[in-house]
């Protein structure tokens, strides 16, 4: 039951992404191209998502625990640090260059388009470099930065 | 290369409502933030067997969606890629690296974190929106790609 629900949730997300335009790099880049061929559609995507998620989360958190788990796993870190700022800036630069973001690209894998696969593989490599890179550097003694 | 796209406020709003709904349902059911980069990372570097399984099933649902949309509307999901292969790969590397370093992307910070009024997510979303806009301006109007 838990996995069926999970599947349906993925499907709802995927349908939302597919019809919204978030999976379409031309539309994403045009959203940010205020000085050129501006298309404000994606503001409606984020607006719509928050319109549901903001009151929705408030309702959900009134319940002591989620249906299929012992508790909620939400981030508790509140520190605004260099990692958050640098990571978000790098993410934004990449999003502006490619036009895809992970949330847009993962459902779009279902179209079978080679560009989507190329982007997802590249971003998977990027995730691995960020997660495993510091450990590898530490191992060969090239970096003294601490990894958590 | 810089072709205009049609302004689609209604389907985009509808899509956004569904994205928000899926985020709320995942929290109600599994108590988890809906972050696409987290799904990708959790599949490659699983924290546990169950952590791998539910993310794989969630991804299976996502990947089925374009076919369902095609079958019910009769037209395929629009994907126009106005950038070169090199930009797709280079941008992809930066997206993955940045999202992993900054602990989130458009879905995790932009939707789930903002909806929880997380200060970190609000700062992260503002940061990447500005970075994306500046990048698009430079690529299109300074470099003229």
Overall pLDDT of chain B: 95
Given helix and strand content, the structural type of chain A is mainly alpha
The largest β sheet of chain B comes out as:
none
Question: How would you describe the shape of chain A?
Answer: globular
- Please write the string of helix (H) and strand (E) elements of chain B: HHHHHH
As a percent range, the share of helical residues of chain A equals: 55-70%
Distance between the termini of chain B: 8 Å
Helix share of residues of chain B? over 70%
Give the number of helices of chain B.
Answer: 6
Please count the helical segments of chain A: 6
Largest interface: A-B, 115 and 112 residues
What global shape of chain B is seen? globular
- Total strands of chain B: 0
Word description of this protein:
The complex is a heterodimer of chains A (148) and B (145). Chain A has helices at residues 2-20, 25-32, 41-60, 82-98, 102-108, 114-139. Chain A is an all-alpha fold. Chain A starts with a helix and ends in a 9-residue tail after the last helix. The relative contact order of chain A is 0.10. The mean pLDDT of chain A is 93. With 145 residues, chain B is an all-alpha fold. In chain B, 74% of the residues lie in helices and 0% in strands. Chain B is built from 6 helices and no strands. At the A-B interface, helix 1, helix 2, helix 3, helix 4 and helix 5 of A face helix 1, helix 2, helix 3, helix 4 and helix 5 of B.
Brief summary:
The complex is a heterodimer of chains A (148) and B (145). Chain A is 66% helix and 0% strand.
From the structure above, extract its key features:
heterodimer, A: 148 residues, mainly alpha, B: 145 residues, 6 helices
Show the helix and strand layout.
The complex is a heterodimer of chains A (148) and B (145).
Chain A (H helix, E strand, L loop, with lengths): L1 H19 L4 H8 L8 H20 L21 H17 L3 H7 L5 H26 L9
Helix pairs in contact in A: 1-5, 2-4, 5-6
Chain B lengths: L8 H22 L5 H9 L4 H25 L11 H17 L4 H10 L3 H24 L3
Helix pairs in contact in B: 2-3, 5-6
